[in-house]
Amino acid sequence: MTTPAGNPSSPLSRIRIGSAPDSWGVWFPDDPRQVPWRRFLDEVSASGYEWIELGPYGYLPTDPAVLAEETARRGLRVSAGTVFTGLHRGSAVWDSTWAHVAEVAALTQAMGAGHLVVIPSFWRDDRTGEVLEDRTLTAAQWRALTSQTERLGREVRERFGLRIVVHPHADTHVDTEENVTRFLDGTDPDLVSLCLDTGHYAYCGGDSVKLVETYGERVGYLHLKQVDPAVLAEVRAQETPFGPAVARGVMCEPPTGVPALEPVLAAAQGLGVELFAIVEQDMYPCEPDKPLPIARRTRAYLRSCGA
């Protein structure tokens, strides 16, 4: 897929900025505490963004003609879809995984996007904290994760022309620097790229700039967010699950948290390739009037960084 580059006069000319339903408190296809999808589209456009993600499948219209009309009249385009997977469980889950992936990939392709964000399954429930499985994978589970992810990358590319970008995420098995590097070292760069989420990586103790500098050729996509260090220290000490941690404000409005986004964006620009950088400030649940002012301030802040 060919997409327009940023402003060539900008210091971050290769970075394409967008936002996502997540920044409007949207985690589920349907939830009464979430803003309606039309309001999300209206407000993300009013905030100055031109790119969006699909968010949880079924939140935005799944009819490509309807979604194309709704996004186009607001000056919006889709950068990626998102899927959740449990590929460390091996070939037994392939058919159910593919059924989910295929419907999301088909809509993503129809909207002209080129990426599919792949999020590993949670080892504990992100709302209740119930432990669902061991937080550490066995050697056999690691082999299943890497081989099945490569298979997913191959199938998605061949059938839909999309590139998968795997998203390290808190409370999953691909989270810390150790696990992210093990995952990258165990997968084929031609089939598997990374969606570096600056907030999740910091949440799990990682250094985003170091990752870009070390594994830059594997970084295919960015999610921009920050964590509040004080809240993070509390939730780590209390072993708080990710969902309640978000409700406590662990993910915060930039530039008030960490990591600093300017050096991350500069390192990404230095890779010499075009990258999406999608703002994702986890805020579930949130009051319906909260996201728009934050989105506007965040877009202004990123412009001040050159993006």
Summarize it.
Helix content is 39%, strand content 15%.
What can you tell me about this protein's structure?
The chain contains eleven helices and ten strands. The chain is of the alpha/beta class and 307 residues long. It has a single domain, classed as TIM Barrel, CATH 3.20.20.150. InterPro entries: IolE/XylAMocC-like, Xyl_isomerase-like_sf, Xyl_isomerase-like_TIM-brl. This is 2-keto-myo-inositol dehydratase.
Secondary-structure blueprint:
Elements: E1 15-19, H1 37-46, E2 51-53, H2 64-72, E3 77-85, H3 94-110, E4 115-120, H4 139-160, E5 163-166, H5 177-185, E6 193-197, H6 198-203, H7 208-215, E7 219-224, E8 226-227, H8 229-237, H9 242-247, E9 251-252, H10 261-269, E10 275-279, H11 291-304
Parallel strand pairs: 1-10, 2-3, 3-4, 4-5, 5-6, 6-7, 7-10
Antiparallel strand pairs: 8-9
Unreliable runs, pLDDT <50, ≥5 residues?
A: 1-5
Computed CA radius of gyration, to the nearest angstrom: 18 Å
- The CATH topology label is TIM Barrel
Number of domains: 1
What's the CATH class label?
Alpha Beta
Helical proportion, percent range: 25-40%
Structural features:
307 residues, alpha/beta, TIM Barrel, 8-stranded parallel sheet, two-stranded antiparallel sheet, 11 helices, 10 strands, globular, disordered N terminus
